[in-house]
Design brief:
The complex is a heterodimer of chains A (about 110) and B (about 800). Chain A has about 110 residues and is mainly beta. Chain A contains 1 helix and 10 strands, in the order ββββββββββα. Chain A has one domain: Rieske Iron-sulfur Protein (3-layer Sandwich). Chain A has a 4-stranded antiparallel sheet with strand order 2-3-4-8. Chain A has a 3-stranded antiparallel sheet with strand order 1-10-9. A 3-stranded antiparallel sheet of chain A has the order 5-6-7, with no helix packed on it. Chain A is globular, with a radius of gyration of 13 Å. Chain B has 6 domains: about 170 residues, FAD/NAD(P)-binding domain (3-Layer(bba) Sandwich); about 120 residues, FAD/NAD(P)-binding domain (3-Layer(bba) Sandwich); about 80 residues, 2-Layer Sandwich (Enolase-like, domain 1); about 140 residues, BFD-like [2Fe-2S]-binding domain (Arc Repressor Mutant, subunit A, Orthogonal Bundle), CATH 1.10.10; about 80 residues, Sulfite Reductase Hemoprotein,Domain 2 (Sulfite Reductase Hemoprotein, domain 2), CATH 3.90.480.10; about 150 residues, 2-Layer Sandwich (Sulfite Reductase Hemoprotein, domain 1). Chain B is about 30% helix and about 20% strand. Chain B is an alpha/beta fold. Classes of the chains: A mainly beta (about 110), B alpha/beta (about 800).
Chain lengths: ~110, ~800
């Protein structure tokens, strides 16, 4: 299991997100604090909305299409909506954003 | 007696020697130090810098102490090598044999290799030499200091230099101060406090170069800002200084690796302090260093002890800035926040909870409960029972809890805060009137005129009644913005103005927001209110905008976008149409003619947006803002140019209006129309502003609608010239921008304030001129093409994925 350098922290806006394309699907990396990151599937479980375009508030994101809101920590939809998105290990080290690719492939295979 | 050699006389080795000599120790000690002095309390350099203490007061071990314990001091002498085969330490003045060796070389300040970093006058903040250099620089009257780095050390340096009378500017790369220890809200309060003491703080400030002729004279930032400086203190971090260990072949990672007995890979060599790496951890705070020192001393004496990691807390040592942070408020599964803010007293508290345990705490303004929270974190106490009152501290446990007061923000307003903008009524006038017996909204309106005009401050006036009268007054129950606050949109707008709140962080803190950083309902509203109130000061926040306004295109149900270039007044040309057709083919777009007299290109991928914008820009076209809460279109008919019934140049007037108003942000979208005669082919009478041309001039109607509601415009005024149409229309739009609730179209706003009030305000020529002037100030920032700004690098890159790993093997 290796961590892959996917870019600089400063390339992800504070309270924003960027996507990373992988062989197992598109991943959204959210920056909820100066040095706080989360990674999830970039696709909303409701109608496939692009979650990286959603508004990031607290440790949550709201899908731009129909306002489904997910916890970035658990991947669970909040409130009355039922559904979830995959979450992935991501970390920040010395200005770089590191994503664990192995975890992706495992979940894709499962 | 065995020979113990110690390299480095810092805080850690000083503590080791103290412990070692507590009992009879079978060691002859030789102590090397590169600095020409013995052990002193390095973390007390701040009071030395500020003049509150002298150096003599922070010396921990004087000559007498070394004599008493027969320590051979070799101060001012660098160690050049460790020869492990011969078991000797080689100093500049000769070698010393050892039986046991302790490396305590600490850390070195990290110096950013900027152009000019080696000029005289650039110092770190690490030792007495640095401190003395800063004190010396401050002796010159009117001297200026620039501190690079807004962390703990940098801020202490800044505060000390300020106390010495220097003009101080702190440059910090991140969006808030001390981002390792504080969250945004606490960072905001810290900045306020520092600014109150006369320290300038520049955030997101990237230094480009330090310049000067033979010595430091100025600092230049990436954005072109130039700061005069007599001294530059670089306090951006430290790096372990364990090179001597690495050179001797000891096992190293980021620093010299040690086991739990502080032993390196050589059993006769120990290391302690900031130069060690234990279990992947590096050290910078003093508490774990003291633990390590105890372990080293015991091990050297043959006693058993092990070093373990423990939770750390930070307190800032800048007099008057009361802040505390402990534990971990970074990412993790299933964490929740409890937030408390008291705007009146400048207090912010945030607790982070995970599995009914407190894992992190940030306190600002009132840190009295810091140690209690720290205890809960360290002991992993289950807080399930006291969760509801936890944030109020130990005093509330087992007793009744005070709920958060929704009126706190209003109670905190200073007496001179303007509540009613229409009539210029301040808080103290209203409170005085209430004290004199005006105990209902109606009597208060009659006596002071507060909220008697446009009425948008009604909520605030009611809250003042509630604050002043207590339970005997019941408010009308106006709807709050969202779950993050008890205040209404109108309240928030008034308070942003009255209290001069110029950032979202300021709004959240000063108005007592209940969440850390708002929600998708309030964030776009607050962002708009701030940019409308402070167009030159406030930086529009893309992350507080809905996707369409952030990406300057309309998102569609499949995640693609629609792109619609502006067609001024609905006019286009063969060349523009050719460019649009070429782009449509190139990007495989569906093409739709819209109701606003323009052409929409649908199905564009996000990655392609900058490229299609560049193509359309090249043909002279700009964004149509078909996605914005702002001016959309000005629909026109052909008017006197072609039509046999046209009375005026409706197309020309529409183009002029559109060129004047485009790019401006408004509470909701604004659509306009100009018809050349009362036959009204441009359907102007169902627009937000609709102009009907007649022989004698122009009829301006406002507050129409043709959406969920259907409304005919109401006549605002009849005027004789095009210039007057533009002046009145601009004034109306600016009045709407300054007063309406976010997401109210003009017709909803006019329903609330009444057309008579709008007419009253706008019929005053001085008021119209002032509104026009304020609109122009805002347009000096916003009247520009957002596509052109994003069609080229570095902005265009932000529309691409951060990385494409589809070709990477996934193991």
């Amino acid at each position: 299991m290796t961590w892959t350098d996917v870019g600089a922290l400063s390339d992800i806006p504070l309270r924003g997100a960027r996507t990373v394309k992988t062989a197992s699907g598109c991943v959204a990396i959210f920056r909820t604090g100066e040095e706080e990151l989360f990674a999830t599937s970039a696709i909303c479980a409701h109608k496939r909305g692009p979650l990286a375009e959603g508004m990031v508030h607290g440790r949550k994101v709201t899908c731009p299409l129909h306002s489904w809101t997910y916890s970035l920590e658990t991947g669970e939809a909040q409130g009355a909506d039922k559904g979830s998105i995959a979450t992935y290990p991501v970390k920040y080290e010395e200005g770089r954003v590191l994503l664990k690719l192995g975890a992706l492939a495992e979940q894709a295979a499962a | 007696m065995q020979k113990l050699v110690v390299i480095g006389a810092g805080m850690a080795s000083g503590r080791v020697l103290e412990h070692l000599f507590e009992a009879e120790a079978p060691y002859e000690v030789t102590l090397f130090n590169a600095e020409p002095r013995g052990n002193y309390n390095r973390i007390m350099l701040s009071p030395v810098l500020s003049g509150e203490k002298s150096f003599a007061e922070i010396v921990t071990h004087g000559d007498a102490w070394y004599d008493e314990h027969a320590v051979t001091c070799r101060f001012g002498e660098k160690v050049t090598a460790i020869d492990r085969a011969r078991k000797v330490v080689v100093g500049e003045n000769g070698a010393v044999p050892y039986d046991k060796l302790l490396i305590a070389t600490g850390s070195a300040p990290f110096i950013i290799p900027l152009p000019g970093h080696d000029l005289p006058g650039v110092v770190a903040y690490r030792d007495l030499e640095d401190t003395n250099a800063m004190i010396e620089a401050s002796a010159k009257p009117g001297s200026r200091a620039v501190v690079i780095g807004g962390g703990l050390l940098g801020l202490e340096a800044a505060a000390g230099l300020r106390l010495r009378g220097m003009d101080v500017t702190v440059l910090h790369l991140m969006g808030h101060l001390m981002e390792r220890q504080l969250d945004e809200a606490a960072g905001y309060l810290l900045k306020q406090d520092l600014e109150k003491r006369g320290i300038d703080v520049m955030l997101n400030a990237s230094t480009k170069a330090i310049e000067g002729d033979g010595k430091v004279e100025r600092v230049v930032l990436e954005d072109g800002t130039v700061l005069e400086a007599d001294i530059v203190c670089m306090a951006v971090g430290i790096r372990p200084a364990g090179q001597i260990g690495a050179d001797a072949g000891l096992e190293c990672g980021k620093a010299i690796k040690v086991d739990a007995h502080m032993r390196t890979s050589d059993p006769d060599i120990f290391a302690v302090g900031e130069c060690v790496e234990f279990d992947g951890n590096l050290f910078g705070l003093v508490a774990p260093l003291y633990d390590q020192a105890r372990v080293v001393a015991k091990t050297l004496r043959g006693e058993d002890d092990v070093f373990t990691m423990r939770e750390l807390s930070t307190k800032l040592k800048v007099t008057g800035c009361d802040l505390f942070s402990a534990g971990d408020f970074a990412q993790g599964e299933g964490r929740e926040d409890i937030v408390f803010r008291d705007p009146a007293r400048g207090i912010y508290k945030r607790l982070v909870i995970e599995d009914d345990r407190l894992v992190g705490a940030v306190l600002y303004g009132d840190t009295a409960d810091g140690n209690w929270f720290f205890g809960l974190i360290k002991d992993e106490t289950c807080i399930e029972e006291m969760r509801d009152t936890l944030i109020y501290g130990p005093a509330f446990q087992g007793g009744g809890a005070a709920g958060q007061d929704p009126l706190a923000a209003v109670a905190a307003l200073p007496p001179e805060a303007e509540i009613c903008g229409c009539n210029g009524i301040c808080k103290n006038q209203i409170v005085d009137a209430i004290g004199a017996g005006a105990n209902t909204l109606e009597t208060l309106r009659a006596q002071t005129k507060a909220s008697a005009s446009c009425g948008t401050c009604t909520g605030l006036v009611e809250q003042l009644l509630a604050v002043t009268l207590g339970d005997s007054f019941e408010t009308g129950g106006a709807k709050p913005v969202c779950g993050c606050t008890e205040l209404t949109h109108e309240d928030v707008r008034r308070l942003i103005k009255a209290r001069a709140l110029r950032s979202q962080t300021a709004v959240w803190q000063e108005l007592g927001w209940l969440t850390v950083n708002g929600c998708p309902s309030c964030r776009p509203a607050i962002n708009f209110y701030l940019l409308a109130e402070w167009p030159l000061d406030y930086q529009d926040d893309a992350q507080s905008r809905f996707v369409n306004e952030r990406n300057h295109a309309n998102i569609q149900k499949d995640g693609t976008y629609s792109v619609m270039p502006r067609m001024w007044g609905g006019m286009t040309s063969a060349d523009e149409l050719l460019a649009i057709a070429t782009a449509a083919k190139k990007y495989d777009a569906a093409v739709k003619v819209t109701g606003g007299q323009r052409i929409d290109l649908l199905g564009i991928e996000k990655d392609d947006l900058p490229a299609i914008w560049a193509d359309l820009n090249a043909a002279g076209m700009v964004s149509g803002h078909a996605y914005s809460k702002g001016l959309r279109t000005v629909k026109t008919c052909v008017g006197t140019d072609w039509c046999r019934f046209g009375t005026q140049d409706s197309t020309g007037l529409g183009i002029k209006l559109e060129k004047k108003l485009w790019g401006s942000w408004t509470p909701h979208k604004v659509k306009m129309g100009v018809s050349g005669c009362p036959r009204n082919c441009a359907e102007a009478t169902c627009k937000d502003v609709g102009v009907i041309c007649v022989d004698s001039g122009y009829q301006i109607g406002v507050a129409g609608a043709a959406g969920m509601d259907l409304r005919e415009t109401k006549r605002l005024v009849d005027v004789a010239t095009e210039d007057e149409v533009i002046e009145w229309t601009t004034a109306f739009v600016q009045l709407y921008r300054e007063n309406a609730k976010y997401l109210d179209r003009p017709y909803k706003w006019v329903d609330k304030v009444g057309l008579d009030w709008v007419k009253d305000v706008l019929s005053d020529p001085a008021e119209r001129a002032a509104l026009n002037e304020r609109f122009e100030i805002s347009q000096s920032v916003y009247r520009k093409d957002p596509w052109a700004e994003r069609a080229t690098e570095p902005e265009a890159r932000k529309f691409q994925p951060l990385a494409d790993l589809t070709m990477e093997p996934a193991e």
